[in-house]
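Appendix C: a fully annotated inverse folding record. The material below is reproduced so that readers can follow the format used throughout the book. The structure is listed first as tokens, followed by the designed sequence.
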């Protein structure tokens, strides 16, 4: 999110704010001026958190830990899906290449860490897109950062694992607000994912 939002600097993307003349600051000061005026509190918070996580001081504690967690999430999906992740196969082949002097030890390491398939596997996963319907603007949870993060937590795993996913409208909840469902597939199943999504939309109709 931080990398995505950081594009809005007022030069390439986003509305530009002209500084009061004479302006003698650096380009970073111009970015700060634009973002301070046009970006909301939550957007600023996510940019700052993401930038801090990539600093040298926080790299080991946050970024590397996040990469390890991403590997565990990817392995969980690998156990569930019938098809294997083609990228994982390539990675394992490269690590066990005979050109490497330590190929035998690396191969043993890969065999231990490569996730085994569950007894029951699936081709696609279907789950709610959010844990609840959208809160009203005057709802206390709307201003609570933690609640807002938890609201979209169901869409995070597929993104972290690098898997194709699509959210579809699925009618309305008891409070009258729209709800959605997400369809997640294995890496490389984009075409099948879109085809099944179209079928699901046809089945749901105008619900």
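Designed amino acids, in order:
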């Amino acid at each position: 999110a931080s990398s995505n939002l950081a594009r809005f600097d007022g030069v390439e993307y986003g509305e530009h704010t002209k500084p009061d003349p004479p302006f003698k600051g650096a380009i970073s000061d111009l970015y700060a001026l634009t973002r301070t005026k046009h970006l909301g509190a939550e957007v600023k918070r996510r940019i700052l958190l993401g930038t801090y996580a990539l600093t040298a001081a926080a790299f080991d504690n946050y970024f590397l830990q996040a990469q390890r967690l991403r590997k565990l999430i990817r392995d969980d999906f690998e156990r569930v899906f019938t098809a294997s992740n083609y990228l994982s196969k390539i990675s394992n082949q490269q690590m066990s290449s005979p050109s490497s002097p330590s190929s035998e030890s690396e191969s043993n390491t890969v065999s231990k860490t490569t996730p085994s398939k569950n007894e029951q596997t699936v081709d696609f996963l279907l789950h709610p897109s959010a844990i609840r319907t959208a809160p009203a603007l005057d709802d206390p949870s709307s201003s609570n950062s933690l609640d807002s993060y938890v609201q979209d937590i169901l869409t995070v795993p597929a993104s972290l694992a690098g898997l194709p996913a699509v959210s579809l409208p699925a009618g309305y909840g008891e409070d009258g607000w729209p709800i959605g469902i997400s369809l997640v597939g294995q890496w490389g199943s984009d075409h099948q994912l879109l085809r099944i999504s179209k079928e699901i939309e046809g089945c749901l109709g105008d619900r």
